[in-house]
Amino acid sequence: MRNIKLGVNIDHIATLRNARNEKNPDTVEAARVVLSSGGDLAVMHLRGDRRHIKDSDLERVRREVKGMLHLEIAATPEMEKIALKVRPDSVCIVPEPAGGASAQGGLKMTGKLAELEKMIGNISKAGIDVGLFVDPEPQPIRAAHNIGADSIELCAVKYSESWGKKLQIKELEQLQLASFLVKELKMNLSAGHGLDYYNVVPVARIEGMDCLNIGYSIISRAMFVGLKTAVAEMKRLMQ
Ligand code: PXP
Questions:
Q1: What is residue 203's three-state secondary structure?
Q2: What is the CATH T-level fold of the domain 5-238, as seen in this structure?
Q3: Phi/psi zone of residue 191: left (φ > 0), alpha (ψ -120 to 50 degrees), beta?
Q4: What number is the average pLDDT over the span 103-124?
Q5: Hey, how many other C-beta atoms are within 10 angstroms of the C-beta on 82?
């Protein structure tokens, strides 16, 4: 049996909580359920606009939950400061497109390499594993490696959107080839964005895949079967 890790993104627990501005559903409780049901990492994206996760969610999960915390942040001085204060186990630097849409692709690094290298260096020095969320292409993977990233998370959005279409095989091959390069560069390998109970298996089977980060589909399924079952089912499919 493969031991591929599952990171469960709990942002949309906070989305629901924020709909009524109340305390429930609680992100601390969600992180605990995730980590006791087969999830290996609790994943939180603290956005600049605080659309779902708030600073207090992040601080409480770090303080009150035993287990691995993976933080997704944009490449800004504010987020670097928060990462160094909260000290998650790992950080992934992600794009945050203007206008509040969720990322439709990996980080665009052109013109930002020096800034990213500095941020990666500062967070790494604190003993935190730093990764970049990039498109499954050689150029951004090599660039991330050159500026000191420990890990790569491959953006699976094109693969996910091509599910059931002819293009799907090409997009899966793109993820496979990119994964091969990441492993050749001896970096940690994960993938995410748009993965669900139908499309996850081929990605989980990619040689060298260390972890998949999945949010929306798990939280959506949890509405009907409960979070514990939704996490356990996904973990079982991945093995
Ligand atoms: N990985 C990264 C870097 C992300 O930004 C997201 C979305 O927050 C995910 C994984 C999870 O994507 P989804 O919610 O579509 O499963």
A1: helix
A2: TIM Barrel (3.20.20)
A3: beta
A4: 94
A5: 18
